[in-house]
């Protein structure tokens, strides 16, 4: 039985009957009970009498104790596992015992832009404090975001911080936190933790040192850009020039202050500049997989793998446009992206970043944050273990917070994709500086030209979201002039992870031709990606 923290007339029966998130729908009830709920509105929700802090604490399950070394995907796991049916009590109990963290909610700008108080409902609110509690969500990062074309962004951003303090904290029972252990302590007392993230850096007025004020107010992650290009970096839709010198200084400052760097709105070059510069795990607070939905805000497989190598986390985004190419999305689509991430990164690098209250169209069966347990249910049905689900729901993000705040700095990603020129079909090179290739017979080859020094590795992906490639053996040849280059034979096992081919003796060359030849394949010969990589000096 699930005990509701919020009651009103017939709604007091909602939790008892298992309605709402993860349970049956009102329409499924017998007619004599259905009428009790027809006039019920979320606006009628009222807090129970008594202070939640006086109620018994509940035993929390976290991923910290079980985390250890992040897991590596099984060689045969293509991310599409069997579903299993579960009774409501099983997933509901797990959901309530986990520490559930949403890495990205836009409630501050949602209410300010509509001239609403933070506790007002407004139109189509998706993460109201009542909804957060009813979804048994324990911690939420509220985004400080100001439209880039808004007049005086620094003043607007500071106004959002004041709104957070005076409305989100002072007039609700949510508690602030800056440390991961504070999130878990609050959760054990049944208190929701409210944290801050800075999305885009228009608020900094082009000065890295201005981030210090926001950190002092409680900001625990910063994305250097929104979709646009700014003085620090290029965004997902603002060209692809990467980090500026100011951006590099900002990343280094965030590392020193123990604040997570967010790459969700970064352009591709910005992503790789951050990945190879930061000395702490970085995160993508609200992005999905580009393999399943080709959107510039989603991450490709090599980017996902870089997040894994850095020890970071990618938060599943619930925006339909980032989940499916056309039509409506469901929670099954969210879990499809989670399965792809698990196949590439392992479950220890997946989190939740809903993007609720960001004017998004959510999945039809995950309409707001109060429905969050439906994600728990579907993850369990699709063969995530209980430990993995607890990690995805919040344990992974809490682990990263601990590590970033510990001050132990180590650069973990040392390569980025090279810029390429195809020497054959120009259509092979996509926006990812890589190739997608479907050879038809043994002996087929593709030739690429790398026109920058530093090449020392070739990464090949043969697995796709829809199955393993039939390619069994490849030959890789490099040439860069007299006495420069070499030949390597590669055996392909079809696992959903990168095949790394070390390329000796070509790193100093300014121009290298890379030739990949199919020696043997069976059936589908698709090569998902061929990515020559440049070693980036520290």
What does this molecule look like?
- There is one protein chain.
- With 538 residues, the chain is α/β, with parallel strands linked by helices.
- The protein has three domains: 6-49, no CATH class; 54-64 and 83-406, TIM Barrel, CATH 3.20.20.140; 415-535, Sandwich (Jelly Rolls).
- Helices cover 28% and strands 19% of the residues.
- The chain has helices at 12-17, 31-34, 64-67, 88-97, 107-113, 129-134, 153-169, 180-188, 211-216, 245-257, 268-277, 301-310, 320-323, 331-345, 373-381, 386-406, and strands at residues 6-7, 46-47, 101-105, 139-144, 175-176, 193-199, 219-223, 260-262, 283-284, 313-316, 350-352, 415-417, 420-422, 435-437, 445-450, 455-461, 471-479, 485-491, 499-502, 512-521, 527-535.
- The strands form five sheets. Strands 3, 4, 5, 6, 7 and 8 form a six-stranded parallel β-sheet that branches. Strands 12, 14, 16, 19 and 21 form a five-stranded antiparallel β-sheet that branches. Strands 13-15-20-17-18 form a five-stranded antiparallel β-sheet, with no helix packed on it.
- Strand 6 (193-199), helix 9 and strand 7 (219-223) form a beta-alpha-beta unit.
- The longest helix is centred in the C-terminal third of the chain and has 21 residues, at 386-406.
- Residues 1-59, 63-82 and 429-433 have low confidence and may be disordered.
């Amino acid at each position: 039985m699930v005990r509701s923290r919020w009651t009103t007339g017939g709604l007091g029966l909602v939790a008892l009957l298992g309605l709402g998130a993860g349970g049956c729908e009102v329409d499924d009830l017998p007619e004599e009970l259905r009428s009790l709920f027809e006039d019920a509105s979320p606006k009628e929700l009222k807090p129970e009498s008594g202070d939640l802090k006086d109620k018994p604490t509940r035993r929390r399950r976290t991923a910290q104790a079980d985390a250890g070394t992040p897991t590596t995907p099984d060689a045969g796991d293509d991310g599409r596992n069997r579903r299993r049916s579960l009774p409501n009590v099983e997933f509901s109990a797990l959901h309530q015992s986990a520490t559930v963290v949403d890495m990205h909610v836009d409630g501050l700008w949602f209410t300010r832009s509509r001239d609403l108080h933070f506790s007002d409902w407004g139109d189509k609110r998706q993460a109201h404090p009542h909804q957060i509690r009813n979804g048994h969500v324990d911690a939420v990062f509220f985004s400080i975001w100001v439209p880039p074309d808004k007049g005086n962004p620094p003043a607007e951003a500071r106004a959002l911080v004041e709104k957070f303090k005076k409305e989100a904290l002072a007039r609700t029972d949510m508690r602030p936190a800056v440390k991961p252990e504070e999130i878990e302590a609050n959760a054990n007392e049944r208190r929701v933790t409210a944290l801050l993230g800075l999305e885009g850096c228009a608020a900094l007025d082009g000065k890295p040192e201005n981030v210090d004020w926001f950190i002092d107010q409680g900001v625990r992650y910063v994305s250097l850009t929104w979709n646009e290009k700014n003085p620090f970096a290029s965004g997902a839709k603002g060209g692809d020039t990467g980090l500026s010198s100011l951006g590099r200084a900002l990343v280094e400052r965030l590392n020193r202050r123990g604040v997570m760097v967010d790459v969700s709105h970064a352009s591709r070059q910005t992503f790789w500049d951050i990945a190879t510069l930061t000395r702490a795990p970085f995160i993508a607070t609200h992005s999905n997989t580009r393999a399943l939905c080709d959107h510039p805000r989603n991450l490709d497989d090599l980017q996902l793998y870089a997040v894994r190598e850095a020890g970071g986390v990618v938060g599943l985004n619930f925006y339909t446009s980032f989940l499916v190419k056309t039509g409506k999305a469901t929670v099954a689509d969210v879990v499809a992206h989670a399965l792809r991430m698990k196949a590439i990164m392992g479950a220890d690098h997946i989190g939740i970043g809903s993007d609720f209250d960001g004017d998004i169209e959510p999945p039809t069966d995950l309409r707001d944050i109060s429905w969050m347990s439906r994600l728990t249910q579907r993850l369990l049905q699709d063969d995530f273990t209980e430990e993995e689900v607890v990690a995805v729901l919040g344990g992974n993000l809490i682990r990263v917070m601990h590590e970033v705040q510990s001050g132990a700095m180590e650069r973990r990603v040392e390569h980025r994709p090279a810029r390429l020129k195809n020497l054959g079909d120009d259509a092979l090179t996509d926006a990812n500086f890589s190739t997608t290739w479907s050879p038809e017979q043994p002996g087929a080859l593709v030739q690429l030209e790398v026109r920058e020094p530093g090449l020392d590795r070739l990464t090949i992906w043969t697995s796709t979201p829809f199955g393993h490639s039939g390619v069994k053996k490849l030959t890789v040849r490099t040439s860069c002039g007299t006495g420069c280059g070499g030949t390597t034979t590669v055996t392909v096992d079809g696992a959903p992870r990168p095949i790394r081919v070390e390329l000796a003796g070509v790193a100093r060359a300014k121009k290298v031709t890379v030739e990949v030849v199919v020696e043997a394949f069976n059936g589908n010969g698709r090569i998902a990606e061929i990515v020559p990589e440049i070693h980036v000096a520290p």
